[in-house]
Amino acid sequence: MGCGFLFAGCGAVYFVGMPFVYDTIRSDSVTEHSNERYYDGPTEEDKKTRLDLFVPEGRDWPTLVFVHGGGWTNGDKDLRVGGKDVYRNIGRFFASRGVAAAVINYRLLPGVHWTTQIKDVGRAVLYARERAREEGGDPTRLFLSGHSAGAQLVTRIALDAEYLVGLGSDREIVCGVIAVSGAGYDMEDAETYALGADFDYLDSRFSVVDRGETWPADASVMQFIDGRAPPFLVVYGGAEHPALQHQSMLLSDQLEESGVAVDTVVEEGTDHARMVLALSRKGSRSTDEALDFIERNECGTPPATRR
User: Fold this and answer.
1) CB of 137 within 8 A of CB of 57?
2) CB of 77 within 8 A of CB of 103?
3) Which helix (H) or strand (E) holds 292?
4) Backbone region of residue 136 per phi and psi (left: phi > 0; alpha: psi in -120 to 50; beta: other values)
5) CA atoms within 13 A on the CB side of 266
6) Is the CB of residue 230 less than 8 Å from the CB of residue 299?
7) What is the pLDDT of residues 223-272, one digit of tens each?
8) Which residues touch 17 (CB under 8 Å, ≥6 apart)?
9) Cα 156 to Cα 180: distance, rounded to the nearest angstrom
10) Does residue 252 contact residue 262 with C-beta atoms inside 8 Å?
11) Chain segment 94-146, per-residue pLDDT in tens
């Protein structure tokens, strides 16, 4: 299944033809704050607890926190392929359209436990929210997004109240989630493995730091879905591996069954890696739907009353 279960961290080889699908976003109207440290704890790693903040003109804009993928073991916000700025370009794209964007790093397996990655994302979310307030944004209009493993991490933050509560906040601060090409939403799902996902791929990552046999259940996010979840936009590529498409459909179906507002978007003809590029490409269905999702979802109100 080329590049493993998640197709993540494939590097330059997987981005062949990138110039034909990558839009370089001009940032004349965007203020960039690079490599801000969001966590100063005793076990922080200098590069992996930092984020870049892209600020639009004006005031009272919403903020999007974006988390890269990489199979939980790879990836970096500063990834460049063929001279192209893959993730930071997403930040510039949204900021150029009136949405502040924080593009974050987080510590990677096996150097930390997988729960530490969730905590890092939570810390980055709270830091970005406060920075948005300082820069003139509306802190009640906070959205989370991620690709692949990053989608799994932001979904966990939005659904599992333990993490934000443990950091002195609450999951109610999350106005909406844009989950892109997510993997590992349900690591116990038999059909995902029947479709070709490699259990050993996940086991080699999670069991290294979690020696017990319960990690497939513990690390899955589906168990935390309830009617108080924020609205979701679930996005995946029509050319992704069936096992990955199935994970997105599982999430979308369970959210809908639980009464959560959810929209599902398929970027036709797009594979897993190129879904990242679609997130900063003018006129792609992914970007159009993401911007519409941010604009139309009300924030600062109980989830049951949101659109």
Assistant:
1) no
2) yes
3) helix 285-296
4) left
5) 12
6) no
7) 999 999 999 999 999 999 999 999 999 999 999 999 999 999 999 999 99
8) none
9) 14
10) yes
11) 999 999 999 999 999 999 999 999 999 999 999 999 999 999 999 999 999 99
- Main-chain phi, psi angles of 204, to 5 degrees: -65, -20
Taking the model in full, what pTM does it have?
Answer: 0.92
Dist. CA 190–CA 186, nearest whole Å: 9
What is d(CA 277, CA 208) in angstroms, rounded to the nearest whole number? Answer: 31
Tokens of 242: 């069936």
| Cβ pair 136, 105 in contact under 8 A | no
Locus of tokens 């497939």: 216
At 166, list the tokens.
């443990």
Q: At what angle do helices 114-135 and 199-209 cross, to 10 degrees?
A: 80
Residue 214 pLDDT level (bands cut at 50, 70, 90):
very high
Supply 117's token pair: 């990655």
CA separation for the pair 140, 143 (Å, rounded)? 9
Q: What is the architecture of the domain spanning 12-305?
A: 3-Layer(aba) Sandwich (3.40)
Strand blocks (E) in the chain: 31-37, 50-55, 63-67, 80-81, 84-85, 100-104, 142-147, 176-180, 232-237, 262-267
Identify the helix (H) or strand (E) that includes residue 279: none
Amino acid identity, position 90: I
